[in-house]
Amino acid sequence: MGITKTILFSDEVNAIANLAKAVAHPARITIINRLLQTETCVCGDFVQDLGLAQSTVSQHLLALKKVGLIQGTVQGPSTCYCLDLEMWNEFKKTIGNFINQEAALKSMCC
Fold first, then answer.
1. Coil, strand or helix: which one is 107?
2. Which domain holds residue 15?
3. Does the global pTM surpass 0.85?
4. Is residue 99 part of a domain?
5. How many domains does the chain have?
6. Is the four-CA dihedral 75, 57, 26, 87 of positive or negative sign?
7. CATH number for the domain including 73?
8. pLDDT digits (tens, 9 = 90+) for 38-70
9. Is residue 105 part of a domain?
């Protein structure tokens, strides 16, 4: 969707769409799972874990960082990543509220 078309929708709808888009790839879900299971920041292990090129992994990390789900700090020649816990909790709340809505349709349709 073109950037100019997003103004047609509410901030809440755009936030849900941006978050969903950010996690809508198996590599990104794998990255998030790895960060959820690790008590410390992860530095440079994603390329080996994912089996993808460094540039591809960097693009996935950038997409997650852009929406604020992860944070990265430069330590020497590498960047270390961890979840932004505040944003992660907001993500769970936002997506949960959307998913947990009751459907207005109470009977069989079509």
1. coil
2. 8-87
3. no
4. no
5. 1
6. positive
7. 1.10.10.10
8. 877 777 678 888 889 888 988 999 999 999 999
9. no
